[in-house]
Design goal:
single chain, alpha/beta, Rossmann fold
């Protein structure tokens, strides 16, 4: 194959400069020919004439040469010519033409006649710009066509017929290093079938399977952000069954300099697949609850706490007190709030919620009116082995913050709880249930409204199974699943936190708000889908193994106790759980006794008292099952 100089390697700069000068020579001669209808007057060809072409052409070329050297128009790589290169050529040629125009004016005042007809200067300007730009674009086009023939192309279908779909298609085309070839668009709107978009056919998405086989499709790019989750899941299942990779676009605010880069077209994540329709919030209600308020968020460096802070920043609170003991995550949150969210009405406070003195100083200094209590230990196996610390953080810590809320007449205390508090089978879930019971028993004693929000696993949170699977895939496996039948409810972090704010705003005190978590997901199926989305094959590229249930782990999570029922709210995704009410004096004494056991660090003794407070706490796959056996006897 011919080794083309503009395709196989960069052309020498001197060669580009010479070509540009030849274009300038051709342009000025063409300008004279066009101006005089291809019959140049004799006086312009007479060497003795002051406006002879023998003097004009060298003058024009010298001016063009100087301007080219100063602006370095010849230094760019021709095959990568872009808009800025064209703008530079336009400016440089215009500058040179203006110099010729000034020389012309001087000539007129000195000799009484123009050196170059003004119309010739105008024609020369236009032709020079046209031919220099055309030369570069021709080389670029030639290079692109040559590259396409020498690369192993991958056929792509784009889902969507909107502006994002067009941007994605053109991004793939204009990138010289792209190995993608867009062959068609698909969409759910049947009315658009058999039409064309940007020269390509539009098909109904129902024909996706046929199109995959017809065009040998290897990639589907989903650009329509409004696709309903169920339809998205169907399309992805079809693609995965035919070994077709699924890609998507980042949010517009993440584009580089406002433009989409081919490197930003990313793989579909499991979070994209599990997410549900956007939540409709009562913005005015939340704003009324937040505007000009001083808000304390405990556990603010964690997955949920940090997202609550970010969500709150939208509603212009007077001040957010960001409280946590994790130094580095707090620093990262501080930078994100200032740089990304342009929000500075916050105060970082490092401390532990079990340090009553530290918490009290926060109340005295900042006088918060609303509290979102997200601080807790949440890792089930860890707490199963360390029940004293579960009680210290989840019960004592909550008690300290709740008691101070009463003492300082806080308006609202919103506690973030978990579905593991329902019929708990582990220490962590039972500790959260005890915290729920205590805060509920405080409600009504003073003006402070104590509200509990309860939901399941959140995607991408610290310790999430999703993050664990992702790391295992990066290492080549195996993916470890505790049990083939284990299921969990999942919710995205922003979704969970939005519902926390909504529930907090609607709460009147004493409620346990339960969120609609959708359909439970089998973890083994989740692992298989993550392997496929990553472009690997289960059993061939990556293995999956079952390790057995961990201490305290149960197969199925619940959102409500069997003896509880729910009442609807104005929000379809938030329900109120009707739960047993506890007498404050009785429960307060029992919880104080439980906290008094922390220094002894006697696990069996601590768990035994936890089961007295929460009778439905039945251990599973745990050493504490012996206590349940004793209680039955």
């Amino acid at each position: 194959m011919i080794d083309l100089i503009f395709i196989r390697r960069n052309a020498p700069r001197w060669l580009i400069l010479i070509i540009d000068l030849f274009i300038s020579l051709f342009s000025i001669i063409l300008a004279y020919l066009l101006r005089f209808n291809f019959s140049i007057p004799t006086e312009n060809l007479n060497i003795e004439s002051h406006n002879s072409l023998y003097w004009v052409i060298p003058l024009v070329l010298i001016i063009r040469l100087i301007s080219f050297i100063i602006s370095r128009t010849y230094a760019g790589i021709v095959r990568y010519t872009g808009t800025r290169d064209t703008e530079r050529i336009l400016f440089v040629i215009f500058f040179g033409s203006m110099v010729l125009f000034l020389i012309n004016i001087i000539s007129y005042f000195v000799t009484g006649s123009y050196l170059i007809p003004l119309s010739v200067i105008g024609i020369d300007f236009l032709s020079n710009v046209f031919f220099m730009t055309a030369f570069r674009l021709s080389v670029k086009t030639l290079y692109l066509e040559y590259s396409k023939q020498t690369k192993d192309r991958r056929n792509v279908i784009i889902y969507g017929i909107n502006e994002m779909a067009l941007i994605a298609k053109r991004t793939l085309i204009k990138d010289v290093d792209s190995i993608f070839k867009v062959v068609a668009f698909i969409d759910d709107k049947g009315a658009d079938a058999r039409k064309k978009l940007d020269g390509l056919n539009i098909y109904s998405s129902d024909k996706l399977t046929e199109l995959i086989k017809l065009y040998d499709i290897t990639i589907l790019i989903i650009t329509n952000k409004d696709i309903i989750p169920e339809r998205k899941s169907e399309l992805i299942d079809i693609c995965l069954s035919h070994n077709v990779k699924v890609l998507t676009l980042p949010d517009v605010n993440k584009w580089i300099n406002g433009e989409l880069s081919i490197k930003q077209i990313r793989k579909f994540k499991i979070e994209d697949l599990l997410e549900r329709a956007a939540i409709k919030l009562d913005i005015e209600k939340i704003k009324k609850d937040t505007l000009n308020q001083v808000i304390l968020v405990t556990g603010a460096a964690g997955s949920i706490g940090s997202e609550i802070v970010k969500q709150l920043s939208r509603f212009k609170p007077k001040l957010i007190i960001i409280f946590d003991q994790a130094e580095s995550p707090l620093y990262e949150l501080e930078l994100e709030l200032s740089e990304k969210f342009n929000f500075n009405n916050f105060e970082i406070v490092i401390g532990n919620i079990t340090n009553g003195y530290r918490i009290k100083k926060v109340f005295e200094q900042f006088k918060p009116s609303v509290i979102y209590h997200a601080a807790a230990y949440k890792h089930v196996p860890m707490m199963e082995n360390n029940p004293a610390e579960a009680i210290r953080a989840n019960v004592l810590g909550t008690k300290i913050v709740a008691d101070l809320s009463l003492e300082y007449n806080i308006n609202k205390f919103v506690m973030v709880s978990t579905d593991k508090a329902v019929n708990p089978t582990n220490v962590m879930g039972a500790s959260k249930r005890i915290a729920e019971i205590y805060t509920q028993s405080l409600n009504g004693q003073q003006q402070c409204k104590f509200i509990t929000t309860r939901f399941g696993n959140v995607l991408g949170s610290n310790g999430s199974v999703i993050n664990r699977f992702r790391k295992q895939i990066e290492k080549g496996g195996p993916l470890t699943v505790t049990h083939p039948q284990i299921t969990r409810f999942f919710m995205t972090i922003p979704e969970a936190c939005q519902l926390v704010l909504e529930a907090g705003a609607m709460g009147k005190g004493g409620e346990i708000f339960v969120f609609d978590m959708g359909t439970s997901v089998k973890i083994a199926d989740l692992a298989k889908k993550m392997i496929k989305l990553s472009g690997f094959e289960l059993g061939k590229d990556i293995q999956m193994s079952f390790t057995g249930l961990r201490p305290g782990e149960k197969l199925y999570e619940e959102l409500l106790n069997d003896k509880e029922n729910t009442l609807p709210t104005y929000h379809s995704q938030i329900m109120i759980g009707k739960v047993k009410e506890y007498d404050f004096e009785q429960i307060s004494q029992k919880i104080s006794d439980l906290i008094g056991l922390i220094p002894e660090n006697n696990n069996l003794k601590i768990v035994r008292m936890m089961k007295e407070i929460v009778p439905e706490f039945i251990s599973q796959n745990s050493e504490y099952e012996i206590i349940d056996i004793e209680n039955k006897q």
